[in-house]
Protein 1
Amino acid sequence: MEKEKKILTGSQIVIEALIEQGVTDVFGYPGGQVLNIYDELYKASDRINHYLTAHEQGASHAADGYARATGKTGVVIATSGPGATNLVTGIATAMLDSIPMVAITGNVPTSLIGKDSFQEINITGITMPITKHNYFVTKVEELADTIREAFQIAKSGRPGPVLIDIPKDVQIASCEFENKKPVVTFKQKKADIKDIKKAVELINKAKKPYIYIGGGAISADVSKEVKKLAEKIDGFIGSTFMGLSAIENSYKRFLGMQGMHGHYASSLANKEADLIIGIGMRFSDRATGKVSKYAKNAKIIHLDIDLSEINKNVKCDAGIIGDIKYSIEEILKLCKAQKHPEWTETVTKLKEEGAAINKIAEAENKNALTPKKMFDIINSVKDSNTVIATDVGQHQMWTAQYTDFEKSRKLVSSGGLGTMGFGLGAAIGASIGSGNKTVLITGDGSFGMNLNELATAVTYNTPVTIVIMNNGVLGMVRQWQTLFFGKRYSNTVLERKTDFVKLADAFGMKGKRVSDAKEFEAAFKEAFKAKAPYLIDAVIDMDEFVLPMLPPGGSIDDIITTVKKTED
Amino acid sequence: MERFVIAALVENKYGVLTRVAGLFMRKGFNIDSLTVGETEDPNFSRITITLTGDDNDKEQLINQLKKLHNVKSVRHIKEKQSLERELVLIKIKNTTQNRSELLAVTEIYRAKIVDYSLKTICVAMTGKPSKINAFIEIVRPLGIVELCRTGVAALERTDIL
């Protein structure tokens, strides 16, 4: 690395510091207060790619999807005022799912700050609760180190988004700049051996161990270690929504998602277990239901890098704070190899029960294009590197329930914030980042929120296959109305006349409408082969429900496995 | 539910107090008092927070504070091993009926008269929050016009040996 000192402007420093951090792709949208940065992006276009989206929100989701699919830090740039506020939902989405992201915004010159100047907004104030940290840079001399620190914070410990707001005069001012070797993360904390020993004691005593992984298992890359642990203690693995794809679905000890819409066997085994080992997860309300009724028979061990997660939502019997890879390895060294044939028998029975429930549902829907059939087709066509992105709603839960994931980081979806409109931008970012085909599963409701990003997919010819599970209603909310609001369908029936095929055509891409399994299979195969974006409008029945379901605030004892269809 | 005191050493930078206060808001902590001021090192400020809650609240508050990038250290200041002081300024009506009692109470509580006018007398007192609470209750019947408390400042005692 060259050590010479150069005099650079603030906007040149932004570009050099990004390149120094290994950034090759950024997403964004230009505007008045980032003109200088965009001028430097223009000059540096051979060293850093900028992807222009249709809307800043789309850019923020693209940066997020890029980060989820690659593990790298996603970068987004926007101008002051509305440009910055349009990033807010994207930043919050990344925050709730602990995704490393750096957002760079321009602001009015420092002399105009606080005067309600044109397109002035206090974006650091607005994003304080939804970032890991943020900066308002007032001196060009501090800019380079601020950007370096931002990248470190975004990746260190529990990852998250960081925002840097740079007033225009700081972008124009110049100072000395010297390249430094990037420090990827701060030193990760290592667990206390006393806590590890306590956990090992509980593990050695357990007869029915259940390992419960979350998104942390993906960001800490512990898929192998988790499997080793399951083998050694003869336990089973369940996952939160965010933990999906960390363990391949075909792995025999993996039971699938646990929680509100979890796989039957996984949720029931979680209830039956006498020991739950939570790894990189946070016992969210969607995972536990009513906390006072959750895991009443089980001891809980909780491994996480974030100290504030221990005892936050549920009280644990052993809390292990630190890098989870190190923690699992230490536990593996100390715990006894075990055999629990009775537990295996119990779980096998639960799996059979779950399969039987599925069969009944399938038999009822012989002819229709059901979500299950769609995913059977998707699973048979996709390959192990295909990224599956989703929006939020019923289609998202069906994706979680029916997709066969084969590799980590192959699910890109907004879990914590549940952001409708996340999918298309994120799918584009994921495809650009991974260089792989990405399939977006979406609903007609979610897709309607940010479909403007079709323009982006077409511009960059991003190979995204868009599957709209079109039921003409806001399905998930409607499902709740069916179950808990006396079928009063307030504002969930979309009486729209949108022709998605024509829409695709208008944006300059291919689209097809399908209404049965054969048509869907043909269209999906064609779309998957295409080296371009492709939209499939798949018509499904509005009375398809996401099951099983644990009612909100309820417990596993309240599990709903069947719902009678509404009569017309 | 018990009262506890937390001391946080934070970087003396723009916006740090907002970050700390914002954290309390979004995590739903209801704080009793908060004081902030520069320390012996001008690069750092000390924030002293008193809060009523259970052990869970205490653990969460400390752990959440530790996650803030500008927060350098967080300590639970245990009551028995610490010095706690607070300052109160109380403006009380000055009448012929209450004047002598007010002067007597001021003397007994080792408070200080810091302002005297024909209409009001202003008294300043430092002490532990419990002493200040007591003093306020004693002078309340005399007619409090206005009062202002600073919140608690606390330091741990150093062992004698």
Protein 2
Amino acid sequence: MPDENWSVDIKPRGRGVHIDFKELWRYRDLIYLLARRTFVAVYKQTVLGPAWAILQPLLTTGIFTVVFGMLVGIKTEGPSAFLFYMCGSVPWNFFARCLEKTSQTFRDNERLFGKVYFPRLCAPIATVLVTLINFAIQGAFFLLILSGGQLFGAFTVTPAWTLVALTPLVVLLMGCLGLGAGIAVSALTVRYKDLSLLVSFGVSLWMYISPVAYPASALSDKYPALRTLFMLNPMTPVIEFFRAAFLGTGSFDPIWLLASAGMTAVIFAVGLMLFGRVEKTFADVI
Amino acid sequence: MNDIVLKAENVSKRYRLGQIGLSTLRDDIDGFVSRLRGKDERIGRPAGQETFYALKDVSFEVEKGSAVALIGRNGAGKSTLLKLISRITAPTEGRIRYKGRVASLLEVGTGFNQHLTGRENIFLNGAIMGLTRAEISRRLDEIIEFSEVERFIDTPVKRYSSGMYVKLGFAVAAHLDPDILICDEVLAVGDTRFQEKCIRKMGDLAGEHTVIYVSHNMHTLRQLCNTALYLEEGRLTYAGELEGAIGRYAGSSRLTDTHRDFSGVKHEGNMGKLARMTYLDLNNVTSNEYEMGGGIDMTLGLEAVEDVKNLRVSALISRPGSGVVASSFSGPVYTANAGQKDALSLRLPLGGLGPGEYDAALWLCFIDPIGRMVSYDVVPNAFRFSVGQNLDMNEGMLWNEKRHGIFRLPDMEEGGLKREQES
């Protein structure tokens, strides 16, 4: 019968992969509720609750300031080493958490995925949203310190306001990069279990090749030959962007940010492809 | 009328078998069957080359508003089919199409979070099933009322009893207003009154919606369903009137032969030289399925070649593929002179042996005063039987091997309750 209009057509897993974005949009309430569930569950389980969100970057920044700033004696740009490190570690932290958490998608949702159908992408997207909330809290805290110090004359910074206005786009870029890399890894860990052990290790290595604990100029001044390679790390221009926008320092170059966006698009597409291939038959493997 | 809402065409699901290091083909098959039964058809990681069809070339149509029973023995492919329809896994071949939304009750309370309240979980569970928040809000009052947990609706579900948990889960599922509802024996949980309420609710739903129901309980199926699909070893062998499928189901477990002749058993070494078992009759049975906690009545034919004294009969119960799990011994009952033939009546109590398939081997032996066992005769695969659920024995629970193990030990004895602090 030609007039039949089926709403769902279940077919074997083919070679190609297509992600049904329309369906994903229909499930947007689920994404919201999953994010809420994770947030509330974490909040209810920890003694300090959301205070963790603020403590975590404070501690990281404090350690960076002591170790890299004072012990190693890395010369930082801008009015204060503390601000410099915080401005790098807050966005880095957002990206790293996105990557680490979404790379556990299949492991964390094993039971759920085995019992009921919904677009599997809802889970990692919700994870990114939760991470985004934490990032917002940390970002607000950073801005509070920044404007407070300015107001009381502890230091003067000159933000690049045009760049500040572009921040949401760069945050989106980081989210997509973390999500894309994370779901790619999550799909691979279904087959190769030990890969999950390498994730947090890999992420910390990645941090050291990104200008989180040192200014990008420090590296490119010392080893000009490595500059291109260094800037091709999609997180390098992102962190340089944040320092240029909020502290008015550094050697931010929009061309590299565009390159980063291009790489993010590729990584994101590869992630979707791997994820889409695994999600259909995941239940048979676990 | 005759509106088709679900259509499956030549659906097959192939699983690849993992390498477990089993030695022979027979072991492979046995190991595989036990994994099928024990592990809910989830096979280990695909590593080997051997494949197995959990479903093979299944085609059927479901009309709008019908209540279809899905019937088959364990491992026939029911769960696999439900997983395919509910899109948890993809078919290997063929295609399934349907109209509208499918909600499955493969396990109620899916995605419930312990830390969230009942109300929050209703929203989460509803969203997982594909509703929007607005749709859930509209049904909220009805769901809460049906669940009978109004008083605790703002309490985290970790404080719920398992009964309340199930009730809330079912209430959400029943109010999803799906076009096709899939149920897999959930009603075996919860108290009897709530079960009846659920069945009534499902009867109501069946009018306008389509229900696919899986159960081993023919009584419930008769209440709910009008048509049936019967699966046998992954193939759809019957589709039509419910009674036809129930007949096949009952027939599949009927014993064609309750008499076993052991004259063809090969005797190795000294086996059967002094005394031997000649036949076995299983008494008072129509099927090889016994209730958990029941017993197997049998008559064993014995023949003494030489004079024998104080021999015992023992039954070694094993699971296909996983070795001996239990043994039962008779007393020193058999004493006879050379040339005598006897028929010995025995009852093998199943005790706490959990649901599943078992093989029984029979031994004729003598246990000497220092505990050495001397075997006189062995029949390795004397008979096969299966143990079925017994809700009365297990406080209404379905015995779940993964959760409870394969054996229920005798109940614990209370040594008295001493209050250490008054409230």
